[in-house]
Amino acid sequence: MIELAPYRKLEKAFLAGLYSPASSAWEIEQSMDELGGLVRAAGARVVGSEVQKRSRPGAGHFFGQGKVSDLAAKAHAAEADTLVVDQDLMPAQVRNLEAAMGIKVIDRTEVILDIFAARARTREAKLQVELAQYQYLLPRLTRMWVHLSRTGGGIGTRGPGETQLETDRRTVRGRIAALKGRLRSVERHRHLVRERRRDLFRVSLVGYTNAGKTTLMNGLTKSSLPVADQPFMTLDPTTRRLHLGDGVNALLTDTVGFVDRLPHHLVAAFHSTLEEVAQADLLLVVVDAATMDMERRLGVVTATLEEIGAAHVDRIVVLNKIDRLAEGAEALVSLHGPGAAAVSALTREGLLHLVQLMRARTSRSADAAKASASVRATS
Ligand SMILES: Nc1nc2c(ncn2[C@@H]2O[C@H](COP(=O)(O)OP(=O)(O)OP(=O)(O)O)[C@@H](O)[C@H]2O)c(=O)[nH]1
Ligand SMILES: [Mg+2]
Predict the structure, then answer these.
(1) Which of 96, 217, 241, 333 is found 20 to 30 A from 253 (Cα to Cα)?
(2) Is residue 55 part of a domain?
(3) CA 261 to centroid of ligand 1, rounded, Å
(4) Would the pLDDT of 282 be above 70?
């Protein structure tokens, strides 16, 4: 478990979202639920939520004037310390909302950056998150002075904002350049490791956060990597050898999960980690088959794979958590084609079949040479 400072546990967050009139009640509920999960993962308690339907955000306060007063009253009644908005805000909108509400205001991107900052363990992940935070901060430098008055910490105050109060834009740019330089040297090491693994068939676990990627990694490779019912438990990639039977070996890599509207600074900062995905021979696209919005999440994963240049990589859709399905998984598998696998990473149901599917992919024509090399390398 991630340890959080005591004050963070007490932080009370009021959630607010603005949606187009065309959005369905269900879409809005999914989005706000997900925001709640992110806020809780960042260590705060959700004390209420409100949404507004409006065709366009207001330039001044993002929400309409009436809604701002309503939000201020409700957040005050709930004794909230922070307003968390489900969309991204312009710096001026944050300033105006903070002035009108009298509490700290943060947006969805800040929440995600904050979770990443708390979870990063390796030097590379820490550098990547710091880089993303500075890049997010750069166009918002005037806001840093607002941060000055944000006493008591909490979401959105951890990170470079608090330690760089005396700096100006040029200093932050210098810091970004230095971080990029340090990341390049870490990445060189990663490239060397990757070169050494060239001969082996490489499989990458990808999917929406909390889909069960790490649980599947543990089930397939007898590892005990940490899993939790929380978004972004895994940030640092881990690679393990995977035995596919008949002397065929592969390397399985577990990596950071995706989420709807993953901040682009994070995608850019994590490019070397995500490059591993693009260079894999096979992707296991892990899906939580027990969620109501499985198709939406799968859509986000497909779009993110395109964004990171991994659209071309061979893939198996792994419908996970079938132990939680009321009805059989056959219908789902038929929906996703014969290449899909229904499994429960938790009970291990279906894992043998998944291993067989993977082994069959290693011998596909284009990969034949690589697969036989892996047999040579490991026999
Ligand atoms: N019932 C059930 N729960 C599962 C299964 N697989 C994973 N889980 C649970 O789902 C939650 C998330 O699992 P993880 O393996 O951490 O998911 P992940 O995809 O690695 O998530 P991140 O690293 O946070 O992106 C945990 O509470 C797991 O115990 C499954 O097959 N069945
Ligand atoms: Mg994980």
Answers:
(1) 333
(2) yes
(3) 21
(4) yes
Q: What is the pLDDT of residues 295-334, one digit of tens each?
A: 999 999 999 999 999 999 999 999 999 999 987 777 788 7
Q: How many residues does the chain have?
A: 379
State residue 10's pLDDT score: 61
- The residues, any chain, with a CB within 8 Å of residue 120's CB and separated by 6 or more, are 126, 128, 129, 235, 236
Q: Which atom of ligand 1 is nearest to the CA of 344?
A: 31
Does 234 contact ligand 1 (Cβ within 6 A)?
A: yes
Per the structure, the complete domain to which residue 218 belongs is given by 197-378
Lowest mean pLDDT among 113-127, 185-199, 242-256: 185-199
**CB neighbour list of residue 297: distance below 8 Å, 6 or more residues apart:** 208, 211, 260, 287, 288, 291
Do 202 and 115 sit in the same domain of this protein?
no
Same domain flag for 74 and 202: no
pTM here?
0.86
Pairwise CA distance, residues 104 & 155, whole Å: 9
In the block, tokens 């040297």 appear at 185
Q: How far is the CA of 64 from the centre of ligand 1 (A)?
A: 39
Nearest ligand 1 atom, CA 232: 24
